[in-house]
Write a structure and sequence with these properties.
The protein has helices at 17-35, 51-60, 67-76, 93-100, 126-137, 158-181, 196-203, and strands spanning 2-9, 39-46, 79-85, 111-118, 141-142, 147-150. With 205 residues, the chain is α/β, with parallel strands linked by helices.
């Protein structure tokens, strides 16, 4: 079976540390899914390329341009990796606006790996204070391990790089587990019971 993975990255520059983290998380998730015997289809979404379409959808309620295709992929995804830069101790406005135009219910039960980048380690709490509550509100299943990368994590010392790599690997494995075990719940046999009259008629046969 082919699992669909969508990575949403809200970096504003090119290149950006946000995209770099998104790429590493995506690669680790692909590897983790392959270890579970799954084929993977990946789409990486650069929100800065959709900024005008997102704002139009916010004001008109009508997705245009490339946005409808992206929203369709989000709806069909088995797992989502969502990465934002930190602005004013929270997620970016573009990041939040994108998920605001996702139809209610689309993310219900969908596995999400939340990640962020910032200049200082002290902003790592954005994962618990902003990202996790936002995705919990959409009833997503947020993987236990969030990944935050500060500037010093990018090649500044062996321990920092190793710790980031370990968090990426652990989070990717958790996402892969949820994505492969996120099967629809079995139907409730009592939700549409057989009418009593039909049951009685069957006894006379």
């Amino acid at each position: 079976m082919t699992r669909k993975l969508v990575t949403v990255t809200a970096g504003l520059s090119n290149p950006s540390s946000t995209r770099l983290l998104a790429d590493r998380l995506t690669g680790a998730a692909e590897e983790a899914l392959a270890d579970r015997g799954e084929k993977v289809e990946v789409r990486i979404v650069e929100l800065r390329e959709l900024a005008h379409d997102i704002m139009n959808a916010m004001t008109t309620q009508v997705p245009t341009g490339d946005l409808p295709g992206v929203l369709a992929d989000i709806a069909e995804a088995d797992g989502i990796i969502a990465v934002t830069p930190v602005f004013n101790a929270s997620y970016s406005g573009l990041f939040k606006s994108f998920f605001d135009v996702v139809e209610p219910g689309v993310l219900d039960g969908k596995p999400v790996l939340a990640a962020a980048t910032g200049g200082s380690p002290r902003h790592s709490l954005v994962l618990e204070h902003a990202l996790r509550p936002m995705f919990s509100y959409t009833r997503s299943v947020v993987v236990p391990t969030g990944v935050y990368a500060a500037s010093e994590d990018w090649g500044a010392g062996e321990s920092g790089g190793r710790e980031l790599a370990e968090r990426i690997t652990r989070a990717a494995r958790q996402l892969a587990m949820l994505a492969t075990e996120n099967a629809p719940a079995a139907a409730d046999p009592y939700e549409e019971p057989t009418p009593f009259a039909d049951l009685m008629s069957g006894l006379g046969r």
